[in-house]
Amino acid sequence: MSIDMAQFHQVFFEESFEGLDIMESGLLNLDMGDVDSEAINTIFRAAHSIKGGSGTFGFSAVSDYTHVMETLLDEMRDGRRQVTQSAVDVLLGSVDCLREMLSAIQDENDIDEISVAEHKKALELELNGGQANLQAVAIEISEQAGNKITGTPTDSSESGWKISFCPHADLLKTGNDPVRMFRELSELGELEVLVDLQGVPSLFDLDPEECHLSWTLILKGNVQRSEIDDIFDWVEDECDLSIQTLNSDEAPALVQKINSISSSTESQDGSDFKQNTPPIIAKPAKAEEKKAKAAASTSIRVDTGKIDTLINMVGELVITQSMLSLVGEDFTADKIDQLKNGLVQLERHTRELQESVMNIRMLPISFVFSRFPRLVHDLSSKLDKKIELKLVGEHTEVDKTVVELISDPLVHLVRNSLDHGIEMPADRIAAGKPEMGTITLEAYHRGGNIVIEVKDDGKGLNKEVLRAKAIEKGLLDADTVLTDRQCYELIFMAGFSTAEKITDVSGRGVGMDVVRRNIQSLGGNIEITSNLGFGSTISINLPLTLAILDGQSIAVGDETFIVPLGSIIESIKISDKMVNRVAGKGETFRLRDEYLPIVRMHNVFNVQSAKATKLTEGLLVVVDGQGVRCGLFVDDLLGQQQVVIKSLEANYRRVEGVSSATILGDGSVALILDIPGLVRLSNQ
Predict the structure, then answer these.
(1) Burial classification of residue 554, based on how many CB atoms lie within 10 Å of its CB (0-12 exposed, 13-18 middle, 19 or more buried)
(2) What is the CATH number of the domain that holds 85?
(3) Mind listing the pLDDT tens digit for each residue in 299-323?
(4) Rounded to an integer, what distance in angstroms lies between the CA atom of residue 462 and that of residue 488?
(5) Contact yes or no for 3/280 (Cβ under 8 A)
């Protein structure tokens, strides 16, 4: 019976990409010249797992490539080679190459053979570099490692090889299959198989998941020892293995013994062991399987503690439901208090269940932060700068969707800090600063939001330079008066750049405006503070989750709207004296020495049933959206509540001034306001 291995591919890819992240992190933390055996062991184990898994699933290109990496890591692990920057750089490049190979296989695309060959050549050059006599070294290492080094003339045998293969009982549980290995051996030469059944227990004691067989294999032909080692390499820790050169006088006797056992087996059950079961081949995924793979890629790993909490809450809900059912079976007036208590309990348990379910979607921000040590390492080398990256609060949890979408904006911000923020070492020393610059990525919770800060101790932002550049590019009128905060926010304008020359790091004036737009699409905002000569801080405020929102219900005529609670500053009732009208510009009101525009909600959304048309009849809700304040003129405030966010764009279309929608308790639909978009709409 053949097994479709494609069903296990997604798990393999997930574990392999995690292993690549472990390798990358470990390589970046290696100390030059110092062989930290435990750190290198961690990297080696990750590479070994990828090689073993790829070999099992038939991804030979990946397993062959990883084998060369293992050789270099093994020399470091054994102390035969020091940790050098060139070796680390080559291995980091190999990690990138492996990631591209696995991504191509996962997406069912062709592997870039040229790129693989280049990285493989770099690995081999690093392996062979600085050795005066490669042949002598190979022989010496071969003797130390039990004749397992490949490529020397003594590694071949014209007559063949005798292989004693005794798997440990748990070999099958690791996903390895002897039949696949025998099939690979049979492609190298003529293979004869002798099986030893002495270790097989009685039927009642047999565990079908354990391996109780052992084999003697005769492989005839001019076969390299290295080719045999490659096949058994990923099971070397799960078996007892002996590989010996086959003597010419020994082969006939062994083959005759195998033939006699094979014919005996054939006469008993009509089967022939030499005719092995059909090889297990990974079949290409069909359309339905591709959909399943796409769905699996959106999966998340959940701690069992969170699942246990969820199950307990469901149990509490079942108990409450049973209690309410008993009250309703024979309801009388004297059971009203019992009914009220049951409803209060139901409300509490529903809220706790909601929190438990939302907690499942929460992932540590380290999933995003983990990519930046490599980014800083590579770009600081390219820019000839010395930069240290500090990660603070990487265990802070945030919604999975936020984790996926915040990565690219953060990459833009960190690259800008590297290129524009941190000065060259000579400039830092001249300014009385340490030669080593520092970039800090910090995440923490504040209220119902998560705050992510990108700080650097570089030269900071020069307001005058920003203003002059904006005027030069025609993005700003020369007579415009700007506050410090508005000057800093000029960098978010499309086409704005202060770079003196265009590089592949930055300078084309694209990126920062996209950063703000992406963060706004997540319901967040971005702020900049800077101290000239001492550095800058960019703060990103995001909601913890994109599924539930704390909002304030407002009434405009017969319509109900939801204002995000985090956007509301205060609600006031104004008098005519506070209102100023500017011809052709609209209305403003004075609030503590600040003039704010008034947005009449019934005009913006064309609500004919609005009860308050005069400003003195209704209320002004003062809101803030990305640093812009305004007053929303509404009929009344209805109350605060948590609402479940439903995408308006997915179910209808994008509406300016509205971010999404929700369903209220009475079944009606309420629109959730997009405050910055509402201000823009009002100005139009």
Answers:
(1) buried
(2) 1.20.120.160
(3) 677 778 888 888 988 888 898 888 8
(4) 8
(5) yes
Distance (Å, rounded) from C-alpha 598 to C-alpha 596? Answer: 7
Residues 433 and 423: their CA atoms lie apart, in Å, by 10
**Is 459 inside a domain boundary?**
yes
Residue 544 and residue 445 in contact, taking contact as beta carbons nearer than 8 Å:
yes
**Whole-number Cα distances in Å, 242 to 143, 214, 220, 245, 602:** 15, 12, 16, 10, 85
Phi, psi of 133 (to 5 degrees): -130, 90
Q: Which of 9, 33, 93 is nearest to 374 (CA)?
A: 93
Out of 144-153, 403-412, 505-514, give the one with best mean pLDDT: 403-412
Across residues 469-476, what is the average pLDDT? 81
Asked if residue 599 belongs to a domain, the reply is: yes
Report d(CA 389, CA 302) in Å as an integer.
29
d(CA 157, CA 281): 30
Sign of CA dihedral 365, 368, 372, 373: positive
Whether 654 and 648 have beta carbons less than 8 Å apart is answered as yes
- Note the maximum CA span of the chain: 114
What is the DSSP track for 659-682? EEEEE-TTS-EEEEE-HHHHHHHH
Same-domain status, 119 and 247: no
Q: Which of 213, 229, 224, 144 is nearest to 188 (CA)?
A: 224
- On whether both 536 and 555 belong to a single domain, the answer is no
Is-contact 30 88, C-beta < 8 A? yes
- Strands 669-673 and 559-564 turn out to be parallel
Residues forming beta bridges with residue 157, ordered by sequence position: 223
pTM value surpassing 0.85: no
| Main-chain phi, psi angles of 339, to 5 degrees | -65, -45
- Contact residues for 530 (Cβ-Cβ < 8 A; gap 6+): 460, 461, 488, 536, 537
Q: Scanning the structure block, which residue is given the tokens 């409450």?
A: 320
DSSP-derived 3-state class of residue 272 = coil
Q: Which of 130, 161, 177 is the last residue of a domain?
A: 130
d(CA 381, CA 301): 35
Q: What are phi and psi of 505, to 5 degrees?
A: -90, -50
Worst-scoring range by mean pLDDT, 155-159, 392-396, 407-411?
155-159
Residues 533 and 582 occupy one common structural domain: no
| Average pLDDT of the segment spanning 607-636 | 82
The Cα-based distances of 327 to 13, 322, 323, 342, 450 in angstroms read 53, 9, 6, 9, 43
Model pLDDT for residues 117-133, shown as the tens digit of each residue: 888 888 888 887 633 33
The three-state secondary structure class of 597 is strand
* Rounded Cα–Cα distance for residues 417 and 535 (Å): 9
Indicate whether 53 and 173 sit together in one domain. Answer: no
List the one residue out of 408, 409, 373, 367 whose CA is nearest residue 390: 373
List the beta bridge partners of residue 639.
Answer: 553
Which strand (E) or helix (H) includes residue 479?
none
**Are 41 and 90 within one domain?**
yes
- Two structure tokens written together for 290: 């591709």
Indicate whether 106 and 251 sit together in one domain: no
* Same domain, residue pair 411 and 555: no
Domain count, the chain: 4
The domain in which residue 90 lies consists of 5-130
Confirm whether 49 is domain-assigned.
yes
Distance CA 157, CA 221 (A): 7
Q: Are 560 and 670 in contact (CB under 8 A)?
A: yes
* Cβ atoms 127, 71 nearer than 8 A: yes
Measuring CA to CA, which residue among 204, 209, 194 is closest to residue 163? 194
pLDDT tens-digit map of 529-555: 888 888 999 998 887 766 777 889 999
